[in-house]
From TrEMBL:
It holds the Pfam family DUF3048. Gene3D superfamilies: YerB-like (3.50.90.10). InterPro entries: DUF3048_C, DUF3048_N, YerB-like_sf. It comes from Kutzneria chonburiensis. The keyword Signal applies. Residues 37-162, 190-297 form the DUF3048 domain. This is DUF3048 domain-containing protein. The keyword Signal applies.
Length: 303
């Protein structure tokens, strides 16, 4: 029975603590990119509320995860495996979901504004991350065109480098079958996503508006995967408003939908441990790989 791996297994290394702001700096304007060192990954936690849009540097990510967080909102974990832009943001805090999720990417550098104090023991037991704002304050700056807390940005070339192995093997020809699809609506918590197949990519809209970046126009993806997950209560009791902080369960199995090449493929996902890869397969166990190009994965809680 054939299966297909999303990424190879490896241990995760994360440590985040609460961080303070830095001196103001000009708004991001550059689109310069640099190469990611071979065998490493950079992950940036990016704000995704309306006040944080348009983001900077999002279009350059190899893989983008949309995570449900408290209050029905979402946050982005952008994984950079090839090129990284000169500036990325707005940067926000890590979540407990990241501990299991990012175990698929070796020992990535995680750029974030910090984490809730309750998470520190769990993050320490997972390893030591050195990309937090408190660990590398010189890499972060404040964008004066934005209001706090949506104003923190990072110069990723000033961060320490992650280690691998990282090898995206889940790229290949489309499987047989599929349902021709040009438009698709999906929901992650209370946030609506729309995907439209145009010019060999899925153009992404969010909450009824095109998702754009300051340095790349409307964001598109070669492949979109809707990974249906369950959530559980986490170590952090909730936010200041009392909203519980859900933890997305990414070890286990469930249903998935894969959008690529203007078609929809029904699939399943499975993952045995936090250090093993996510596998996507059809009902017969055949591989459902991604197409060449940016990949978006929506971690959509089962209602």
């Amino acid at each position: 029975m054939a299966r297909f791996r999303l990424v190879p297994a490896a241990a995760v290394l994360l440590l985040m603590t609460a961080c303070s702001g830095q001196a103001p700096a000009p708004a991001p304007t550059t689109t310069t990119t640099t190469a990611v060192p071979a065998g490493s990954a950079l992950v940036v936690k990016i704000d995704n509320v309306a006040a944080a849009r348009p983001q900077t540097g999002l279009a350059a990510a190899s893989v983008v995860y949309v995570e449900p967080v408290e209050g029905g909102l979402t946050r982005i974990a952008a994984v950079y495996l090839n090129q990284i832009p000169a500036e990325i943001g707005p940067v926000r805090s890590a979540r407990e979901t990241d501990i299991d999720l990012l175990g698929q990417y070796g020992k990535p550098t995680l750029a974030c504004s910090g984490s809730a104090p309750q998470l520190v023991p769990l993050l320490q037991s997972a390893g030591l991350g050195t990309g937090c704002q408190s660990a590398v304050p010189a890499a972060y700056f404040r964008n004066t065109s934005r209001q706090a807390p949506h104003d923190l940005y990072v110069h990723p070339d000033k961060l320490p480098k992650g280690t691998g192995p990282v090898d995206l093997q889940a790229v290949g020809p489309a499987p047989a079958g599929g349902t021709p699809t040009t438009k698709r609506h999906e929901q992650v918590a209370q946030v609506g996503f729309d995907f439209e197949w145009s010019d060999q990519k899925w153009l992404i809209s969010m909450d009824g508006k095109p998702l754009t970046t300051t340095d790349g126009g409307q964001v598109g993806a070669a492949t979109v995967i809707v990974q249906k997950i369950t959530t559980r209560a986490g170590t952090v009791p909730g936010d200041v408003a009392g909203n519980p902080s859900p933890v997305g369960v990414t070890v286990g199995s469930g249903a998935a939908t894969v959008l690529r090449d203007g078609k929809l493929f029904e699939a399943t996902w499975s993952r045995t441990t936090r250090t093993t890869a996510t596998i996507f397969a059809d009902a017969a166990g055949n591989a459902v790989p991604a197409a060449e190009g940016p990949l978006w994965i929506l971690l959509a809680p089962v209602s």
